[in-house]
Amino acid sequence: MRNRMECADDIPRQSVTESIFSRNTGQFFSQMTQSWQHLPALRTLRIFEAAARHLNYTRAALELHLTHGAVSHQIQALETQLKLRLFERNGRQTQLTDAGQQLVLGVRESLDALSTAIGKVRERESSHVLTVSVTPSFASAWLVERLGGFLQRHAEIQLNLQSNTTLANFRTDNVDVAIRYGAGVWANTLSEKLLDDELFPVMSPRLRRGKLPRTPAQLAQLPLIISANKLWSTWFASVGLDYTEQRNSLQFDDAELALQAAIQGQGVALGRSSLVAAKLRAGTLVAPFRERIPSRYAYYLVYTETSRRKAAFQAFREWLLAELISAPPLAPPPPPNDP
User: Fold this and answer.
1) Architecture of domain 42-126
2) Which of 10, 12, 154, 328 is the most buried (most CB within 10 A)?
C-alpha cells in the first residue's frame, strides 16, 4: 500500500490536473458535436430567416435567387425535422407561430455571430495584403525599381500591384490605395499630394545624328510626339512662339510610350519631370532648353477611409513618403542658355 501511495505521490500535480481537464474537455466537445448533428443545415436556416422576415415565400425566393417551390420545400423540411409548425395562414396573410417567432430570434443572433466571426478572420488575413493601383508610366519610371526596399522592410505584407490608366473602383476591384495623376479630386476618396511636375522638351541625344536644336524655334523643324496631355501649345506660348500641330505626328495615350518613342529617336516629347528624371541621369534623354512650365496636375496618393485604417496601408504610405524625400531631384537643373 505504501509503494502504491509513493507511486501516486510521484505523479506531478500538473499532470493530474491536465489529465482531468483534457478528459473533461474531450467529453464536453464530444457532447457538443453530438448535439450539433441534429441542427438544421445553415442554408435551410438562411432560407427560414428570409421567409420569416418577408412573411412571403415569393419575396424570400427573389432575395435568395431561388424559386418559390424551393423555399416552400425547405420550410416544410425544416418543420418536419423540428416537428413544429413555424408558419400559419391567417386569411390571405402568412404569420409566424410562437415557435417560429422564438426560432427566428435565435437564428438571426447565430447568423450575425457567424458573420461577425468570419468577417474578423477575413479582416485579419487581409490586413497583411495591400493592393496598389498605379499608372503604368509612374510604375515603370519610378515605383517598381524601389519596391524591393519596401518588401525587405515589410516581409509580412503581400503587395499586389495593379497597373491601369483609370482610377480603380476601390469597392469592386478590391483596391486599397492608388497613385494617380490629376487635380487631386476623386469622388468618395481621400487624396494626398505626393509630388508636383514640370514639363519640358526631351529627346534622344542621337536625334538627327546628334545635331540637336539650339533654340526653341528650331523645334518646329523636328517631329513632335504628342501624348495625352497635349500641352505643346502651352509650352510654345511660354517661349513666345505659336504652335501648329504637325501632320502625321506620333500620338500616344500613355506618357511612358511617348518617352520610349523619343528615346528611339522618333521625335521630341514633352516630358514630365517625374517620368524623365532617371532617363536624363542615364543619358538616354536630354533636355536642351531652360524653359519649363508647371503642370496643372500632380501625383496623388488616393485611398478610402477604410483603407486608411489598415496597418499595411500606413506602412506603405510612410515608406512612399520617405522614398520621395530621399530620392534624387526629379530633374537636373536646366542647362544654361547659349549666348
Assistant:
1) Orthogonal Bundle (1.10)
2) 154
